[in-house]
Design brief:
Strand content: under 5%
GO molecular function: hydrolase activity
CATH topology of the largest domain: Glycosyltransferase
Number of strands: 7
CATH architecture of the largest domain: Alpha/alpha barrel
Protein name: Glycoside hydrolase family 88 protein
InterPro entries: 6-hairpin_glycosidase_sf, 6hp_glycosidase-like_sf, Glyco_hydro_88, PolySaccharide_Degr_Enz
Organism: Niallia oryzisoli
Radius of gyration: 21 Å
CATH class of the largest domain: Mainly Alpha
Shape: globular
Helix content: 55-70%
Number of helices: 15
Keywords: Hydrolase, Membrane, Transmembrane, Transmembrane helix
Order of helices and strands: HHHHHHHEHHEEEEHHHHEEHH
Distance between the termini: 78 Å
Length: about 400
């Protein structure tokens, strides 16, 4: 009996060790011959293939930086959380949707997207598992961006997200990241909710949504930005108006960037807020360009050249720059910046098409991950950016313009 117990114990120890060791070995093997892509179309196809594969089998993103005895985190339920998964899935869906919108009909992509929608929504268009946090708004936005389906079929789920956002409104009239943290306004929230609010508001004639999105951005610009440098802090306290966390946190810039640029993109040209947000886009583009590294990347702390590059920051800011290039006066700089970002991201793509070296999930205000690995969010924004880049190349013949 003791011998059997001993064998079981040894087996469990080996299993725990394998759970730790196997991912390390897989990363090491995956990084052999990394960055060998030179052709944008080939790169796009490779990263898109991974995006299709991941949409319905999205890799779980770790909450902690712990790399030892990971099995204990799994048993405690500390390995991953649904809220983190929402924005991973949303980015993949946005990227694959852009592939369909910009290039051609792809039955495989459409099939996987429809499969994803069946997993998330019931026959009445409502969430099967209703989200508890506003992080899901970016996933709802990705549904609105799918041109080959009728978003009205999912109107109950979209309405639910609007109600969820309203339920997180604070006394200052802006949206809190969590009900338990109503004193704080996070930069992440700009990216989570603002594009959805504008898109939903325009589609269904709800001006309150649009007003709220612009207010969320304007309040952050007033209290959460470093003066003269236009860099967002991680968060700010709505009572004291004191900025919190790090100025120049890379993915924080990315969250602000995608929230701002997609909100601006969604507004019709004649909307009263269009020029207002366009000015914000110009100012943020000018500020962010200063911190792009010579290799095309933005670092995880953009203000320090000594910190390591972050692929998630580079993908989101590269996408922002490509969109900002639509604006007269900053066209050439922004387009060149996005080209450099794409070149860098190609150099950190594994031979199987997985974009590597993204910063892990943030732990708290001012507490940042030091793990740099695979992130579906980055994969999605790389797909989204390279397809938009294709449109610039074909429609605008920008090579001639830039030269």
């Amino acid at each position: 009996m003791l011998e059997i117990i001993g064998l079981i114990f040894i087996g469990l120890v080996i299993l725990v060790l394998l759970i730790d060791i196997i991912p390390i070995i897989k990363d090491w093997v995956g990084r052999i011959r990394i960055g060998r892509y030179n052709d944008k179309e080939m790169w796009n196809q490779s990263i898109t293939n991974i995006g299709v594969e991941w949409l319905n089998k999205t890799p779980k993103i770790k909450v902690t930086d712990n790399t030892r005895l990971v099995a204990i985190d799994m048993l405690k339920g500390n390995y991953t959380k649904n809220a983190i998964q929402y924005w991973q899935e949303a980015a993949l869906l946005l990227g694959l949707g852009e592939q369909l919108n910009c290039k051609r009909k792809d039955e495989k992509i459409e099939k996987e997207i429809k499969k994803f929608l069946r997993r998330k929504f019931d026959q009445n268009g409502q969430w099967i598992q209703k989200p508890e946090h506003i992080d899901a708004a970016i996933l709802a936005y990705s549904i609105l961006k799918l041109n080959f389906i009728n978003p009205d079929l999912y109107r109950p789920a979209l309405d639910y997200i609007w109600e969820l956002i309203k339920d997180n409104l604070g006394e200052d009239g802006t949206v809190g990241y969590r009900k338990s943290m109503q004193n704080y306004r996070y930069v992440d929230t700009i990216g989570f909710i603002c594009p959805f609010l504008v898109s939903y508001g325009i589609k269904y004639g709800n001006n309150d949504c649009i007003d709220l999105a612009v207010k969320q951005i304007q309040e952050y610009e007033q209290y959460g930005m470093l003066e003269k440098h236009n860099l967002p802090a991680h968060a700010y306290n709505i009572e004291t108006k004191v900025p919190l966390g790090l100025y120049g946190w890379g993915r924080g810039l990315g969250w602000y960037a995608i929230g701002l640029i997609d909100a601006w993109n969604e507004l019709p040209q004649n909307n009263k807020y269009k020029n207002l947000l366009e000015q914000s886009v110009k100012e943020f583009a000018t500020a962010s360009l200063k911190f792009q590294q010579d290799n095309g990347a933005w670092n995880w702390t953009v203000t320090r050249n000594e910190t390591r590059p972050d692929s998630s920051t580079t993908a989101t800011l590269g996408y922002f720059m490509l969109n900002a290039a639509k604006i007269d006066g900053i066209f050439k700089e922004c387009l060149a910046s996005s080209d450099k970002a794409i070149a860098y991201l190609m150099k950190v793509t594994r031979r199987n098409g997985v974009v590597d070296f993204s910063q892990g999930d943030t732990k708290d205000i001012g507490v940042y991950s030091m793990l740099f690995n695979v992130l579906p969010f980055t994969q999605g924004f790389c797909i989204r950016m390279t397809n938009l880049h294709y449109i610039f190349k074909v429609v605008n013949d920008y090579d001639k313009e830039v030269s």
